[in-house]
Amino acid sequence: MSTFTFGDKTYPVDTVEFLSDFNEWDENFARGMAPKVGIISGLSKDHWKIINFIRDFFKRTGKCPLVYKTCRINRLHLRELQKLFPAGYLRGACKLAGVTYKEGYLDLSWAEEFKVGYLPQSWAEESAERGTVGDQEKKTYEVNIRGFLINPQAWDKRYAIYKAHEMKMPKLTDKHWQVINFLRQSFEKNNLVPTIYETCEACGIDLEELQKLFPDGYHRGAVKIAGLRTR
User: Fold this and answer.
1) What is the pLDDT of residue 146?
2) Each residue's pLDDT tens digit, 49-91
3) d(CA 131, CA 141)
4) Distance CA 137, CA 100 (A)
5) Which sign, positive or negative, has the C-alpha torsion 173, 64, 99, 56?
6) Does residue 141 fall inside a structural domain?
7) Which of 204, 104, 180, 205 is nearest to 146 (CA)?
8) What residues of the chain score a pLDDT lower than 50?
């Protein structure tokens, strides 16, 4: 376990400096971490409004709020969120709040890896009729306890189709594939999942359209279907 020290306090963090224990958070942590996520001039009341909203939501629900909900309730446009947290929603706002998208899936922190995901026979047969599976009836994908693909190189379009099916999403449209392909191409080029700002700008969509495409969220929806994970 790594640590982050600011002032006279040391905090347990993971390898990318997300707070390891929600209950260890205090305002000092957010102030100290702010320059690391691109906020050089200090935290304003607008920053604190979002940070406190995320923390209060987590305390009430045990989940990290989706970016859609945070923006809607706080009446923030995506560009306004970007000005406040240039590193991104997860890597900026949620990090400062001591919360990550990983919170609220299952109370199984001890079981970080592994479980196996695969194409069920009935679904594979149905997909084969549509020409999406090919000759193989079944393929195994290794995912973590939250359903994120462990090896991004194991991804293929069948995985995306199955994951969307698992999320009870409708058939993936050209617009879905535009987002998915951008995520994968950007990751291959930079070895980093692009921020929600970069994705919306590159694909010519706003937050409302992204929500319609991926109602489960940016990281828990789009990024997961693309076979990626932020960390």
Assistant:
1) 85
2) 999 999 999 999 999 999 999 999 999 999 999 999 999 999 9
3) 20
4) 36
5) positive
6) yes
7) 104
8) 105-136
Residues 35 and 136 in one domain: no
- Count of domains observed in the chain: 2
Indicate whether 170 and 68 sit together in one domain: no
The answer to whether the CB of 119 falls within 8 A of the CB of 127 is yes
The C-alpha angle 10, 24, 111, rounded to 5 degrees, equals 110
Residue 182, CA atoms < 13 Å, CB-side half-sphere: 19
Tell me, yes or no, whether 148 and 74 share the same domain. Answer: no
Judged by DSSP in three states, 210 sits in helix
- Asked whether residue 69 falls in the same domain as residue 140, the answer is no
Kindly state whether residue 48 falls inside one of the protein's structural domains: yes
pTM for this model (two decimals): 0.79
In the chain, the largest separation of any two C-alpha atoms, in whole Å, equals: 63
Phi, psi of 103 (to 5 degrees): -70, 140
Question: Is residue 19 domain-shared with residue 79, that is, in the same domain?
Answer: yes
The domain of 62 spans 2-96
CA-to-CA separations, 86 to 23, 80, 190, 195, in angstroms, rounded: 25, 10, 18, 9
Does residue 205 come out as left (phi exceeding 0), alpha (psi in the -120 to 50 range) or beta? Answer: beta
Q: Please tell me whether residues 122 and 196 are part of one structural domain.
A: yes
